[in-house]
Specification:
heterodimer; A: alpha+beta; Enolase-like, domain 1; 4-stranded antiparallel β-sheet; B: 7-stranded mixed β-sheet; 24% strand
């Protein structure tokens, strides 16, 4: 491992000042992804600014009835928080579906949003990869892409975003707050991750040097009956091959409101707006759920090795939505 | 010869915790990369970034200028070693371990250099900074069942081809024929402790502290390579964190010895997990075809098993998958063939249950298919084809209690209540099914020497070149020695893992404990004779030695095997393709069980290995680069805790009548048959046959529905 500088910040202003505009410097929170990438040489920051002790570790109910989640809240604390579990159960379930107990105790909300893809061509650290070495090519397209994107990918990159948590946050219209030396800012989660296009190395829309300070969830009564389901190649400690966060409000057999976001299918958590539109105002039947899933997946452009994800996501979405519909109070 | 009877000291046969267990859990036990040594330097291997070609140049100067870097070894500056010799196994050596001998690159990750520095971090940084220029050549790493350049190959005394009777005629006369192809992927050992060696030259003697499964084996190989007398090489491996067939002579020991000699300092080389994927061997992928012909009552007329595996361009290795079909079932005609194809890949090697693990997946899946075709219970089908003598060899069997394993297993699993129809049981959205498979594995012994000393203080010391690779062998041998000495286990000091203790077979082939126990009991018998005179014990003690070569090689030819019956229950989510094992039961006839505590761990550990093989394990090679994709434990999935259900292993009484202690061996048989039992259970759950491992969700999800 290369030698690197290490400094610990006590507050947000201090962190921003320590990082400055140095493109070779990185914030370090739980380190569960960054440190691994440093060990394998994929990430080679010259300086680390440790933000773990920043006073951003609170979860508060907002006046509007939503939640404000600090950036350094750990995954464990987020998943265990009573307000999260009661107001946004899919979020708690998504967090618990990820990693292991040990990792969740270290990992933070801000870091979770900014974790890097687990595409092996990226993490292996050698050979071409347009994320790691822009312009070098994407070997996954011709090679191993069983767990790569089927939605919103480009000919330059087919990697997926690995987060479970972000899928639930996407379903609940989360807004990401950040600080910069020029003042604070906000980005809807939907805008945090830019389209892949021909710049897969540009993974967020955050300004240079920005520090994520927290995530705000607007009030969403529908989210109280929400669920996250994750499909993976082993029962635990594996990234999703497909996942979905869904919330459903059915009254008199009619869908009043639906939230649906998909994971492991795109370079970002995929808010399934087309499916939501197809379902809203209509009957909460299996046929309608299937039609809604198909409406969303019509945009899928799978590769030979990941074509299974289309039926997988259809089945997953239909099972999850019909389950929620069947459980709806009558 | 009769098995030893128990004495007042009922050491063997009762559960004992590992004698070194406390040292291991407290960290007091030191492994090969942890032994402190004054003046130690650290080497870091550099693997090629091309799959085939030649090293044109190595830019050593910038790396030599880096902090702490002492030297960079590569083909242009490294002393020659000998690769033209015969190994203790009677084979030619895999030249892969003889590092830096020429400029040719024969697979991705081929060792091209060793950077040696004062600290491991400096060595690693130097290794990662080292620029190597290659003349790249086109490579071929595409394994498939229809390679036209495959050729038959004998393996370790097993012929490539066996042919008995008229296979085609019997198939033509059969009422029912199963003809199916099965594939298994590239699997890796992934021992918990990565390979590591700490090496020094001590006045012309090569002193190696290493992680391996046979100190004597490594001693012999290094002596050959460095043209030394075996006595001039000492190899120690007191604690070993798993081996599974992959811990023989590898690049790390040889590179460390070369560097230590070049520098005149001790050198340590430890591998990373990723390097292990390229440098320590692996289980080859296999493509197998089985043809079974049977009468309507399920009696086999013909059994054909063809197996193909890959090997490297520099060394031949057979994954002897068709071997199971030479001993499994009676049939009028038997035809088996084992072939290999040479590719630009690392040489595969033995991995836990070599041959039997992939071979039993194919054969035991096919038997299940035949049972379904004939409408016969899968256990009954196997009973109807139980052979009286070796079906191909004609040799008598040693004890063969496979039917008893099935009977006991069926009783405990509740098999009698099973509805044979596939695809009719549900638990919510999941489909449920059960499956079974037979298991067997060689039960042999190999020569060993041992020395047992009666100490003046009334205790005993045993010295034997055994290896405890985490199995509990040290404890089992302590119990065996105590029983033979008619003393308590805590009065026996068991010294193992040192080539100075004399030649001995290794922890391999499920023959370790049996082979070592034989030598120990022989030495104890000699000691007891020496002590029978009643004279006092002098301060230096009284030592007796043994060598079992004569006894072991004097055994008459037989089909000597351990047996087992595996039972699995699975739940399959047809909407996602996820398969989860809910129950696994294995009943074994595997000789006398010396230490039930660790033997059960060996068996259940093997069965868990089998679940992992069935559902998860698969190394993936990139078609363009020829190297692995995701060669680490994030990319190569092994079963996690949550994948492992209630796993139960037990045994029927089966002391081996020819072994002084009654042992057969339990190291590998636990793996055998599990993948087939799981796949058969998935068929029972869904009605769909899966003939390609692992049973990934995408495969299960997209499989064509049952006809």
């Amino acid at each position: 491992m290369r030698e690197f500088g290490y400094e610990r910040a006590a507050d947000v202003e201090g962190a921003l000042a320590l990082l400055g505009t140095d493109p070779e410097a990185r914030y370090l929170a739980g380190g569960t992804n960054l440190v691994d990438l440093m060990k394998t040489g994929v990430a080679r920051p010259v300086r680390l600014v440790d933000i773990r002790e920043l006073p951003l570790d609170r979860i508060e109910v907002t006046e509007a009835g939503g939640l404000r989640i600090g950036a350094t809240v750990t995954n464990s604390d987020l998943a265990a928080h009573p307000e999260v579990r009661s107001r946004y159960p899919a979020l708690a379930q998504a967090v618990l579906a990820g990693a292991s107990g040990q990792l969740r105790t270290m990992a933070t909300v801000g870091g979770n949003l900014l974790q890097r893809t687990r595409c092996a061509y990226f993490t292996d650290g050698a050979g071409p990869c347009n994320k790691r070495l822009p312009g070098s090519g994407c070997p996954a397209i011709e090679g191993e892409h069983r767990n790569h994107a089927v939605l919103g990918a480009s000919g330059h990159c087919v990697a997926t975003h690995p987060s479970d948590m972000a899928v639930a946050l996407a379903a609940f219209d989360a807004v990401v707050s950040y600080a910069t030396a020029d003042g604070p800012g906000e980005l809807p989660l939907a805008e945090l991750y830019p389209p892949v296009g021909d710049t897969p190395q540009v993974e967020t829309a955050l300004p240079p040097g920005a520090l994520i300070t927290g995530v705000t969830l607007p009030p969403a009564p529908v989210a109280a009956r929400s669920r996250y389901r994750k499909v993976r190649e082993r029962a635990s400690y594996a990234f999703a091959i497909g996942s979905a966060a869904a919330a459903l409000d059915v009254q008199g057999g009619v869908v009043r409101e639906v939230r649906l976001a998909l994971g492991a299918v795109a370079s970002r958590p995929w808010r399934a707006r087309a499916a939501e539109r197809a379902l809203t105002g209509g009957p909460a039947t299996e046929e309608a759920c299937t039609a809604a899933a198909d409406a969303e997946l019509a945009a899928a452009r799978p590769l030979p090795g990941n074509a299974y994800k289309v039926p997988l996501m259809r089945n997953l979405v239909v099972a999850l939505l019909t389950e929620l519909a069947e459980e709806a109070p009558r | 010869m009769t098995p030893a009877t128990t004495t007042e000291h009922t050491a063997a046969g009762t559960a004992h915790r590992r004698v070194e267990g406390r040292d291991k859990v407290t960290g007091a036990a030191r492994y090969a990369a942890e032994i402190p040594l004054a003046g130690l330097a650290h080497g870091w291997l550099v693997g090629s970034t091309v799959a085939r070609g030649r090293v044109r140049s190595v830019e050593t100067a910038p790396v030599l200028a880096m902090p702490g870097v002492l030297t960079v070894l590569h083909h242009g500056n490294t002393a020659r070693v000998t690769t033209d010799y015969v190994t203790v196994l009677g084979t030619s050596p895999d030249p892969t371990a003889a590092v830096f001998q020429h400029d040719q690159v024969q697979h991705m990750g081929w060792p091209v250099a060793l950077v040696v520095a004062e600290t491991p971090e400096q060595a690693r940084e130097g290794a990662e900074a080292l620029v190597v220029h290659y003349d790249e050549e086109p490579h071929d790493t595409a394994f498939s069942g229809d390679r036209a350049d495959a050729y038959p190959l004998d393996s370790m005394g097993q012929p490539a081809v066996t042919d008995k009777g008229e296979t085609e005629a019997e198939l033509a006369a059969s009422a029912v024929v199963v003809d199916a192809c099965y594939t298994t992927p590239e699997n890796h050992h992934n021992a918990m402790e990565p390979h590591a060696a700490t090496v020094r030259w001590d006045g012309g003697r090569l002193d190696v502290i290493d992680s391996n499964q046979s100190a004597a084996w490594i001693q012999s190989e290094l002596a050959n390579m460095f043209s030394l007398d075996p006595q001039s090489v000492r190899v120690r491996s007191e604690h070993v964190g798993g081996a599974f067939g992959g811990k023989g002579v590898r690049a790390h020991q040889v590179a460390a010895a070369l560097a230590a000699r070049a520098l005149g300092r001790p050198v340590r080389v430890a591998m990373t997990r990723r390097q292990m994927f390229a440098l320590i061997g692996y289980r080859s992928p296999t493509a197998q075809r089985i043809r079974l012909g049977a009468d309507a009552d399920g009696r086999l007329r013909a059994l054909q098993h063809d197996s193909l595996n890959q090997t490297s361009t520099v060394h031949e290795h057979v994954e002897a998958s068709a071997g199971v079909s030479r001993v499994g079932y009676d049939a009028a005609a038997h035809r088996t063939a084992q072939r290999v194809v040479r590719l630009d890949v690392p040489t595969p090697t033995w991995m836990r249950a070599p041959g039997e693990a992939p071979g039993s997946f194919a054969l035991e899946s096919a038997m299940d298919e035949l049972a379904a075709e004939c409408g016969i219970d899968p256990i009954e089908l196997r009973m109807r084809n139980e052979p009286e003598r070796g079906p191909v060899s004609g040799l008598p069997f040693g004890s063969r209690r496979l039917p008893d394993c099935f009977r006991e297993g069926a009783r405990r699993f509740g098999w009698a209540d099973r509805d044979p129809r596939p695809g009719v049981r549900r638990d919510g959205r999941r489909l449920l099914g059960t499956g079974t498979a037979a298991a067997s594995f060689l039960a042999m012994a190999m020569p060993a020497t041992a020395a047992v000393t009666a100490e003046a203080d009334g205790t005993f010391t045993v010295r034997i070149g055994a290896a405890d690779v985490g199995t509990g062998a040290r404890t089992a041998l302590t119990l065996i020695a105590a029983e033979a000495l008619r003393t308590a286990p805590d009065r026996v000091r068991m010294r193992i893992g040192d080539s100075d203790f004399g030649p001995a077979w290794g922890a391999a082939g499920s023959m370790g404990t049996r082979s070592w126990a034989w030598a120990i009991t022989d030495a104890v018998a000699a000691l007891r004779e020496r002590l029978a005179g009643g004279a006092g014990i002098p301060p230096e003690g009284v030592t007796a030695r043994s060598d079992t070569s004569g006894s072991v090689f004097g055994l008459a030819p037989r089909e000597r095997r351990a047996y087992g019956a595996q039972f699995a229950e699975v739940a399959v989510d047809p909407g996602t393709g996820e398969v989860r094992v809910r129950r696994l039961l294995g009943i074994f006839a595997a000789g006398r069980i010396v230490n039930p505590l660790t033997a059960r761990s060996q068996l259940t550990g093997g069965m868990i290995w089998g679940i992992s093989m069935a559902l998860h394990e698969e190394a993936v090679r990139d078609p363009v680069s020829g190297g692995h994709v995701g060669a680490d434990l994030a990319g190569y999935h092994v079963a996690a805790h949550a994948d492992i259900p209630a796993v139960e292993a037990d045994w029927v009484d089966d002391p081996d009548p020819e072994d002084p202690v009654g042992i057969k061996g339990v190291g590998e048989i636990g793996v055998v048959g599990v993948a087939a039992a799981v796949a058969n259970a998935v068929w029972h759950a869904t009605g769909v046959r899966h003939r390609h491992l692992p049973l990934r969700p995408d495969r299960v999800l997209t499989a064509p529905p049952a006809a």
